[in-house]
# Entry
Amino acid sequence: MFARGCELGNADACHLLVPMLIEGRGGAQLLDVAAEVAQILCEAGSGQGCSWQANVLSRQAASDQQINHENLIAARELYLQGCDLDSMEACGQAGALLATGTGGPPDPIKGYDLLERACRAEQWQACANVAVMARDGLAHDADRAAARDYFGMACDGGIANACNDLGIMWMQLSDRSGDERWRDPALLVFIASCDGGDGAGCSNAARQLREGRGVPTDFVRAYDFASRGCEANSARACLLASDMRGAGEGVEGDAQTARALRQKACDLGQSSACAMVDAPARQD
# Structure
């Protein structure tokens, strides 16, 4: 019905149709058709249309055996055009490309500005990206306070890895200042990260609870978070779960399960685990 409405010249129907074509909802994924419709919308002054057209080009550029740089260059220009037409999604994407120098020369200062603009419009991934730039000083002098604010916005917006990054910054702030009050909020955002499916957040929550860093030691919860992190393919979480399973911390000791967890950590790229697969679980 949206396709029919779009064919009859209804712009709203076209706007509803394009994401379905891109995502393959309600039928086959038709990127070429999506790009054609998005181009018509873009030429008619729709910033969202430009953003969708760029999205398709970015997907096609990455789907080939080799990166199609011409597609990336065109996508960057379309994202910038969409941003000029007040698509905040396009601003966020353009900002990321400018910051990283993808599809053209790097321009971290302009990229930072566009990411900030998109973040203020509740584009949560843009908040996470500008937080990284603020933390690492990639456009201006490093600003940890601003980075924590942006990570917090992204975390509240459901970006799981941003929650983990924020927790790390809270822990670092406690380490630097000696003020333990930041440990509790760190644990809360590590848990939020884990709940959002980020294995690194699970691993950090597990470690904090196991070691009692600013919070009561809780081996049972620590093992639960380590197990969840391992299921989410965090190698560090698998190794931590192996240690705890072998030592019987928070869970019944089981050498066979501990070995399987070490093997998974190895398979996921944790090199230290590979040398220990057939060794007793660590007790530290």
About this structure: The mean pLDDT is 94. The CA atoms of residues 46 and 85 lie 7 Å apart. DSSP finds 16 helices and no strands in the chain. The radius of gyration is 23 Å.
